[in-house]
Amino acid sequence: MNEELLQIKRCQDASYHPQIYFEGWRVAYLNDTPKFHLENMEDMQRHNTSDEVFVLLKGSCTLYIGDGGDEGPGTVRAVELEPGVIYNVRRGAWHTHATGPDASVLIVENADVSPENSDHIPVNVGWLFRREEEK
Q: What angle do CA 7, 8, 10 make, to 5 degrees?
């Protein structure tokens, strides 16, 4: 097929893989790897220029969303993603994610999202486990 008419992208490799850039947007796969398991989580982030959309394709993935502001993530809630449902993390919302075995997640965000326009804060995994139990 002529790629000027139709691009077909697949990715089975572990980790985060941007696939398509179009008019300022980036579409990526996030596939399970130990780096994204809850016990290896190191920080939460917030993007200052873009919402970030997550769609679970298969497996399991949990979003952790904080309601805080400049002082930090505030109260963090765990949201188990359901396959085929669109989850839009709003610009400026503290978040992180943990993948489960065989997870594959589609992510859409501004192509210019980077450490320069995103904030990060260290996370204590034990603290997140407690927050998850409170939900």
A: 140
For residues 102 and 98, what is the distance between their CA atoms, to the nearest angstrom? Answer: 12
- In angstroms, the CA 15 to CA 36 distance is 8
- Global pTM value: 0.80
How does DSSP classify residue 40?
G
Query: Which tens digits make up the pLDDT trace of 47-91?
Result: 999 999 999 999 999 999 999 999 888 888 999 999 989 999 999
Q: How many CA atoms lie within 13 A of 15 on its CB side?
A: 3
**Integer Cα distance of 37 and 55 in angstroms:** 18
Q: What is the DSSP string of 51-98?
A: -EEEEEEES-EEEEEE---TT---SEEEEE--BT-EEEEPTT-EEEEE
| Residue 83, token pair as written in the block | 């396959």
